[in-house]
Amino acid sequence: MEKILTIDGRQVKFKSTGAFLLKYKAQFKRDALKDMLKLLEVYDEETKQVKDMDVLDLELFYNITWSLAKCADPTLPPAIDWLDTFSEFPLMDVIPEIIDLVLSCISSTVDSKKK
C-alpha cells in the first residue's frame, strides 16, 4: 500500500511492504510488530484520534513513519536528518494515515476458511 501525504507543504510518499518490517529492525534494532502494537494501543480506530497524547511514544511514531517513507524512497537520509528537514510535522493529520499503513502491513487479505 502506498500513500502520498502533504507535510510542511511537500508531497511525501509512504509505502508499506513486507520489507518495511525488516528495514525497521535493521535501522532501529527493534521488533517492528511490537512497536506497531504499542502505537496501536494509544490509537482509537473509531475516532481516528490518539486516545492520550501523554502516552504516545513519539520516538516509535517517528521511527515507524521514517521507515515507511524509506520503503517508498530508498535515498532518504537517516531518520533524524529526514525529520529535521520539516519545520512542521502535523501529528494529528499524519497519525491516522500512518496507522492505516501500519494496519495494512499486519492485517490479512485472505478470507478465513473455517469449516
Topology:
Blueprint: E1 2-7, E2 10-15, H1 18-28, H2 32-41, E3 43-44, E4 49-50, H3 58-72, H4 79-83, H5 91-106
Antiparallel strand pairs: 1-2, 3-4
Helix pairs in contact: 1-3, 3-5
Kindly list the characteristics that best describe this protein.
single chain; 115 residues; two-stranded antiparallel sheet; globular; 5 helices; alpha+beta; 14% strand
What does this structure look like?
It contains five helices and four strands, in the order ββααββααα. With 115 residues, the chain is α+β, with helices and mostly antiparallel strands. The protein has one domain (2-106). It has a two-stranded antiparallel sheet with strand order 1-2. Strands 3-4 form a two-stranded antiparallel ribbon. The model has no long low-confidence stretch (mean pLDDT 87).
Main sheet overview: 2 strands, antiparallel
- Strand line-up across the major sheet: 1-2
Shape: globular
Query: What integer value in Å does the Rg equal?
Result: 14 Å
Order of helices and strands: EEHHEEHHH
The beta-strand count equals 4
Note poorly predicted spans.
none
β-strand amount: 5-15%
Could you tell me the mean pLDDT? Answer: 87
Percent helix range: 40-55%
What is the count of distinct domains? 1
Enumerate how many helices there are, as a single number: 5
Instruction: Find the structural class using helix and strand composition.
Output: alpha+beta
Cα distance spanning the termini: 31 Å
Quick gist of this model?
The chain has 115 residues and is an alpha+beta fold. It is 50% helix and 14% strand. The chain has one domain.
